[in-house]
């Protein structure tokens, strides 16, 4: 989907991509930003295994909490999980959890 944002006389084009994983249990909207690609999304309660990171991911919890399964580390609102390239992306949530993720 392409969205047109009007800022004075300037027209900006922003490509927004919808992603859905695990039968809709994890959904996100992807967009480019000035530093890298990014997504904002929501995890449903459960275990979510995305496999191996193809590039560095920094995931900031916006609402709720999650557990990073490989280390059993817990992340709450305002905290950031970093998964380096080649790391496992395995997340567990006990509640709906919103996040923003930066790639690269």
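Q: What amino acid sequence fits the structure above?
A:
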């Amino acid at each position: 989907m392409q969205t047109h944002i009007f800022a004075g006389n300037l027209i900006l084009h922003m490509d927004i991509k919808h992603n859905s994983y695990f039968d809709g249990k994890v959904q996100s909207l992807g967009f480019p930003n000035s530093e890298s690609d990014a997504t904002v999304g929501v995890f449903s309660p459960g275990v979510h295994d995305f496999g191996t990171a193809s590039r560095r991911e920094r995931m900031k919890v916006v609402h709720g909490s999650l557990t990073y399964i490989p280390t059993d580390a817990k992340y709450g609102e305002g905290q950031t999980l970093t998964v380096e390239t080649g790391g496992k992306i395995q997340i567990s949530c006990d509640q709906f959890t919103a996040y923003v993720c930066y790639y690269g």
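Q: And what stands out in the fold?
A: The domain at 21-103 is CATH 2.60.120.10 (Jelly Rolls).
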